Amino acid sequence: MFDVALAKAALSAIRLTMEENRDRLIELDSAVGDGDLGLTMCKAFVTADQELAGSSETDVGKFLMQAGMTMARAAPSTMGTLMGTGFMRGGKALKGKTECDASDIAAFFRAFSNGVMERGKAKPGNKTVVDVLEPVAVAAEAAASDGDMPTVAAAILDAARKGEEAARGMMSEHGRAAIYREQTIGKPDPGAVAGRLMVEAFASALT
What we know:
By secondary structure, this protein is mainly alpha-helical. It is 70% helix and 0% strand. The chain has one domain: Serine Threonine Protein Phosphatase 5, Tetratricopeptide repeat, CATH 1.25.40. It is built from nine helices and no strands. Helix 6 runs antiparallel to helix 7 and helix 8 runs antiparallel to helix 9. It starts with a helix and ends with a helix. The model has no long low-confidence stretch (mean pLDDT 93).
């Protein structure tokens, strides 16, 4: 079962992953954006991890909502706001639960993806983080029918990696990267890479 202790572990895992990939994300974002993605992701997750490490909250949903609010406040740029929104929406879907099963994790990622799409005004195919988050939500929902957490973890890992790879073949139609349009085809999308890293780290806590 996924409880607050594992939610804390997930935050810590994401923080470490973002710190390890900070320079890579900066490099990718500098090619099509303003180059601050690595800084944003680190700021968001480092702050959330630090501020909530000692939390006595037992409600998983409330804890994840608090994490999202912290991220949005700490890193108020585009991706920081989207990550914050995702965690707040996902947390809201789990509010009232102290232990979460596979179906709850699916509900978290469904709400997360929907929240990011609504807030960012992006949809699948625009070559953004949504091209990772939406396949992850779909995969989690399909895998949750087995009621097995490792199965869900494996499914979201696979979906995140395939989503990032699929995004490479797309043309950017949203955000700063849209300026480059055809030039972005065949190149990794910084947001999709960051989304894949986040899902990989989150999945590690599920197993």
